[in-house]
Design brief:
Fructose-1,6-Bisphosphatase, Chain A, domain 1; 2 domains; 5-stranded mixed β-sheet; 17 strands; binds 2,5-anhydro-1,6-di-O-phosphono-D-mannitol; binds magnesium ion
């Protein structure tokens, strides 16, 4: 319901559901669980060391990265909330080695969700913005316990994608394939309210985000692009650029959705063996869907991220996304030289 009181995320989802003849309400219920989990994670992130949850968990995830206590807590919150809601057939996450199947007695639903429960977690201890990223897929019909192979769907098959950013405000950004909307958590009443309707990314930008410390390892097309940006007004781009690097993809994508920009974690010679830094299924694909739905582009360098057929759950890919005209230039440098 919309009124001068505003539109809650719950009402937004119900209204969207009513537009689809034959909608069962299962997606709305799934989203309610995702929203609940993100509210709990937001509360933990806010409390921080008041409840002793900053710092390392002294464990490693499947990718050999040391987990923070809040990585483990956020994963538990997200996994347990969704498992019990009856809308998922299986789950997968950055923090779990393998697909998480449900105990036998749990009711199964028609969706699968893959997520990074707390992205940018190197920022937690220094009190900088982090977020949860999620991608919703359809489970294959008639399969009780989906396997890794069932998850390996291209980004174009995503039913929905979103992130929840834990910054000065907690904001949920969501797409179901019909544009992008942002909802700010009103902590006094416990509801996400529609504050950023129909988000679109400006097509042009003068702001890039890349970890410059990797510059000497980049391939030629990225070297060329950044070099031309750095040359500013006197260079071939004939304008001065600004630079940002938060080391938290959720924060970078949120900035780009707000005022445009280009974000790059390209392939480089240091990480070539791994295929990239960011993970395809729960970082690159959901962000690519959001960015494309907001009018931007998302590529690896030579190809569109959402066209990739994943080969494994924790696959990594190079990521270049943001304002359309700027990403197109980098795409051309990779494909046309
Ligand atoms: P994480 O999922 O372990 O937090 O890693 C992903 C993060 C991204 O949010 C961010 O863009 C990138 O890692 C930063 O990497 P770097 O520290 O190399 O700059
Ligand atoms: Mg991550």
């Amino acid at each position: 319901m919309s009124s001068s009181l505003g539109t809650s995320l719950t009402h937004y989802l119900i209204e969207e559901q009513q537009k689809h003849a034959g909608a069962t309400g299962e997606f709305t219920l799934l989203m309610n669980d995702i929203v609940s989990a993100c509210k709990v994670i937001s509360s933990y992130v806010n409390k921080g060391n008041l409840i002793g949850i900053l710092g390392s968990a002294e464990t490693e995830n499947v990718q050999g990265e040391t987990q923070k206590k809040l990585d483990v807590i956020s994963n538990d919150v997200f996994t347990h909330t969704l498992m019990r809601g009856g809308q998922v057939a299986a789950l997968a996450s950055e923090e779990m080695d393998e697909v998480h199947n449900l105990p036998d007695h749990f009711v199964r639903g028609k969706y699968m969700v893959v997520y990074d429960p707390l992205d940018g977690s190197s920022n937690i201890d220094v009190n900088v913005t982090v977020g949860t990223i999620f991608s919703v897929l359809r489970a294959p019909e008639g399969v009780k316990d989906p396997s890794e192979a069932d998850f390996l769907q291209p980004g174009t098959a995503q039913v929905a994608a979103g992130y929840c950013i834990y910054g000065p405000s907690t904001i949920m950004v969501l797409t179901t394939g019909q544009g992008v909307n942002g909802f700010t958590l009103d902590k006094d009443v416990g509801e996400f309210m529609l504050t950023h309707p129909n988000i679109t990314i400006p097509e042009d930008t003068k702001e890039f985000a890349i970890n410059m410390s990797n510059q000497r390892f980049w391939d030629a097309p990225v070297q060329r692009y950044i070099d031309e940006c750095l040359k500013g007004k006197e260079g071939p781009r004939a304008r001065d650029f600004n630079m940002r690097w938060v080391a938290s993809m959720v924060a970078e994508v949120h900035r780009i959705l707000t005022r445009g920009g280009i974000f790059m974690y390209p392939i480089d010679s240091k990480i070539r063996d791994k295929g990239g830094k960011l993970r395809l299924m729960y970082e690159a694909n959901p962000m690519a869907m959001i960015v494309e739905q907001a009018g931007g582009l998302a590529i690896t360098g030579p190809e569109r991220i959402m066209s990739i057929k994943p080969s494994k759950l924790h696959q990594r890919v190079p990521v270049i996304l943001g304002s359309k005209n700027e990403v197109q230039i980098v795409w051309d440098y990779h494909t046309k030289g």
